[in-house]
Design goal:
6-stranded parallel β-sheet; 24 helices; binds thiamine diphosphate; single chain; Rossmann fold; 3 domains; 39% helix; binds magnesium ion; alpha/beta; 5-stranded parallel β-sheet
Length: 694
Amino acid sequence: MTLSMTELEKKAIDTIRALSMDAVQAANSGHPGTPMALAPIGYLLFNEQLRYDPAHPKWLGRDRFVLSAGHASMLLYSLLHLAGVKKLGIDCEVTDQAAVTLDDIKNFRQPGSPCAGHPEFGHVCGIEVTTGPLGQGLATSVGMAVATRWFAGRYNKPDYPMFNGRVYSVCGDGDMMEGIASEAASLAGHWKLSNLCWIYDDNNITIEGDVALAFSENVHKRFEAYGWQVLHVDDVNDLPALRKVLQTFEATADRPTLIVVKSVIAFGAPKMAGSHKAHGAPLGTEEIRETKIALGRDPDKHFEVADDVYELFDKGVIANGAKAFADWREMFERYKSDHPELAAELLCICKNKLPEGWDADVETFPTDAKGMATRVSSGMVLNQIAGRFPWLLGGSADLAPSNNTALTFAGADDFCHANPCGRNFHFGIREHAMAAIVNGMTLSGLRGFCATFFVFVDYLRPAIRLSALMGVPVLYILTHDSIGVGEDGPTHQPIEHLASLRAIPNLIVFRPADANETAASYKAAVKRTTSPSAIILTRQNLPTLDRSFFADTSGVEKGAYVLFDAYDDHGNTVKPELILIGTGSEVSLCLEAHDRLMAQGIRCRTVSMPSWELFEIQPEEYRNAVLPPDVTARVAVEMACEQGWHKYVGSRGAVICMKGFGASGPAEQLFRHFGFTPENVVKTALDMLEARQK
Ligand SMILES: Cc1ncc(C[n+]2csc(CCOP(=O)(O)OP(=O)(O)O)c2C)c(N)n1
Ligand SMILES: [Mg+2]
């Protein structure tokens, strides 16, 4: 150990090492090596660098720390414990209980412990984002830095520097290799996010061994090319050197900073230090014993935290954070009287509330046989909502003119270095980073949306999964939703994508049938504050249905509803003998078939089913009213793969769907070719009814 730290600092750092070893050993699984190696930088960030109040961990003006190398979770749990971060109560109020107790650490990776294998947002207050899938944390940290910039742009006023927070992310070789990190770094450099600092643990080790097996690029030059400042520290145990580069970062105003730090995995362990074997397995009791002796600790004590180590944090982050928060709070009190409207917005954001009247401008679309594409009505509705929702913002991966996601009202403007309160984001062709960045923005209190062609949802799926896992209410706006894309052909025609999104728990998927269902979908999506939503929209025009004749759109938020029912000669509804179920563009097709079947005396019901997920959470009574269990003659129509539909049509029902990839050609021809015609729906239904009579 170098002499670059005081005895007490060394003791605190070694405490983190020992907690990490002990917890992984007790769990008999986990990753001890990197928390041990990175204990010094973790200590420095938490106890000296972060402007963070452990007693107010949700403070909007705080600095943020993202452990992108999520496998090193014991580093974070140890730090949150030592910093005395407080737990949130059921209404997100701060309690005086610890977010991470020593018992929680003793139960690392066990059911009931908030200390899961990888840091899970929402399990422990102080975890800013779920990490584990490498690269995601880095990209999310860019979104957090963006959000801080945006808050500063909108809310900072002369004499009121309300927002000047910084975002730090610790990452490893794995993060550095992931493509998403490159996309995100490129954008961070482009946006000159000087409040962003990535700390790269350059330890030459990944799971399979030496990084030289698979990684030989010049990271320094790569990041310089992205427009970053790149700084180096030769030994992570050199606290003065770390302090110096962190100061340089703070003093830099025109670009993000990458700090490349050399470390030795499992530092302090006599046999395992420097070995890839220390990455993801317990060190073993003997090696832990030897390590503790080498570090000058009592080898017989486990989960040991000395009082003076707690005191070091009391005097560090706990005291400094309390002062910083109190100063901010005092400033905010004055801000409230000088800028009451902006202060009210901030309070709304803190409470995760929607602004008053956010949907007041959402219009009702008049009946129109020619209609409009749902991507067009989406663009109109998005603008109507965003106009009254100042912190609703986002953009597209270079497809805004096609996705119709540009916010066009006065003052919307583009987000950029010179205009950090712009509301339109140009993410370039970087779908994966876009989604993770929007996660970071939304985690920071903004309400983010992002857009691309539906078929390219595959490019951002890992980040969507994390939105869903974390319960972050991002809006995914996905247009060009089927073979209706036409001439661009099968590469651009989604097939399995609806099924793949419906498979993600806690993601609400909407596929509206016309302009008014689009508006209703937005209303339902925006209201949900603990789940992301994907709104799936057409490229092609769809008729705007006559809602004085068909059911109104109040059923959209129930996921499925009877749009048009069977009725007798007197106009009274009667029990159907057949149910047609459609989503999106196929709803009008079902209605055409419905008319023809009715003309043949068939008692037909058409159900519009914009959201499976919302339908699933309705009471059984409602679900049975829409899809009566004894009406088993059912046909579902959706220009996508069949997967999942038999749940709604039953094993004897029919699904008119895509059986393989699409084709290149005018949409109308493709619809005929693949059987999406009223004739085929009618024939399928009649065949089914006939077969049942036999
Ligand atoms: C996207 C993704 N791919 C693979 C993994 C599995 N994984 C976890 S850690 C790791 C190696 C990471 O190496 P590095 O970042 O250098 O971490 P170190 O061993 O140095 O701590 C891998 C492949 C993962 N968590 N996420
Ligand atoms: Mg490594």
